[in-house]
Amino acid sequence: MRAWRTLSLQARQMLAASLALVAFLGLTGLALDRAFVATAQNALRERLANLANSYIRDSELDRTRDFISPEIPPDSRLLTPRSGLYATVRGEGLRWESASSLGRSLPPVEFLKPGERRFEGPLRIVDASGMENSVYGYSIGVIWVPADDFPLTFSVFEDAQQIENQIRIYRAALWGNLLLAALLLTMVQLLVLRWSLLPLRNVERELGRVRQGESQRLSGRHPRELESITHAINALIESERTHLDRSRNTLSDLAHSLKTPLAVLRSRLDADASHAELRSEVAAQVQRMNEIVTYQLTRAARTGHALYSAPIEIEPRAEEIVAGLEKVYAGRGVFCEFDIDPAARFHGELGDLQELLGNLLENAFKWADKRVLLTVSVEPAPPERRAGVNFIVDDDGPGIPAERVDRLLQRGVRGDERVQGHGVGLAIVQDIVTAYLGELRVTRAPELGGARFSVRIPPAY
Q: What fold does the segment set 311-457 form as a domain?
């Protein structure tokens, strides 16, 4: 069973097509064989019928009811013993056989009613030497009027060897040609399969070049059926490369940030500081290093996303965040309204969704006068992609001038130094949006008059 499961696609298709080809040609051969046998038997029947009719026409019965055969029979083989063609006449007290039946024991003839005709065969006969043979027979029942309406049965027999030879020759030619056709079709089938599977081999070769570092991604020149696969592979490659670069950058930033406190400790050791001074300095630098490590780990954890994630329902998460913010800003009486499409889903990590909504809503609560509006809608996508989602957060605050938008999205920059914060919330949002290949726009809210933050997460594979 395992061997069947590990068969290559080409082997599977070749096996299935070969079985179908063998079945088709086999059934075709059987149908043609049966048709030829039926045609050959019908031709023999017509020939024997014509021969029997000619014999009846040229024969006579005398007054004593003795059968008188024609001097020149319809077929000269009837005069040659064991020629393979035989004739008999049967009646009450009458039995006549052609000269060709000498030494042959012909099959018994059943008396037929006048006008009745019968074709039989192959029938087994035994000659004088005991050798078995087979014949086909055609019989006609007649009434001989000149002989006082005397009933007779005319029978003509022919060896089955002739028709069997025809059938054998035909079958040899038929199955030989079908076998040749099967070989030719198998070769054509193999070529067609190799051609049809060539795009998969190209994908395999390109993946090999990516593994060896010769290429950065798969090319876009692939059949339509493979586009979703190649796009997904490229997205996975980009995601892994981005994660790797992010990990390297995080480690580099961490190492660079730790150089300063380590250098301070080294300088204090070299300066022969007192025990109390050294203890105080070590405590301060350890606290600083702990803050640096915590910040870098938090930063690394909240950036990036898994390529394939289960869809997350948005409304319950938004309600949890807004419930907490309304408690924090209860003294100002700020409340939030929802306009969320029930079908909207976030295809990513839960932490990213919480960071995204949390920072956007907290920023809106911080600057709003009384109202905040969260709008979530679905961005339709083709069947082979996951639907996108759009987030819009409006407030009725003072808004943000267009010339200050780019600076406001920089890390560490705050909209107003008098307002508490660290200036990293919107930068975190920007990092998350970028990781999801999305877009962040800051404009004026048309209804509430304050700032509008629009986030578009596009459809993805």
A: Heat Shock Protein 90 (3.30.565)
